[in-house]
Write a structure and sequence with these properties.
Layout: H1 2-8, E1 14-18, E2 24-30, E3 33-39, E4 44-47, E5 52-55, E6 61-64, E7 69-73, E8 76-79
Parallel strand pairs: 1-7
Antiparallel strand pairs: 1-4, 2-3, 2-5, 5-6, 7-8
Length: about 80
């Protein structure tokens, strides 16, 4: 079992990078759990190791699979 887990390598997770000069908040919904994630200026945070929904600072929403990178700039989130 341990060898199998080691062979799989690290799990992918979505991440968010805040390029703005002020903190930004995204809302992450995984299953029935809703979490507000505050991202400080210049900070990068990993979240959502599998499927989740995200509400960006400007209100846009997106479904994520766990491998995306969200870049916040100008108060808007862009998935790349």
């Amino acid at each position: 079992m341990v060898a199998l887990l080691a062979a799989l390598g690290p799990a992918a997770a979505a991440s968010v990078i805040n390029k703005d000069a002020e903190p930004r908040t995204i809302v992450v919904t995984e299953g029935s759990t809703r979490t507000e994630l505050v991202v400080a200026p210049g900070e990068s945070v990993e979240f959502c190791p599998s499927t989740c929904f995200v509400t960006m600072p400007d209100g846009d929403r997106a479904a994520l699979t766990g491998s995306e990178i969200i870049e916040i700039s100008g108060g808007k989130g862009r998935i790349r």
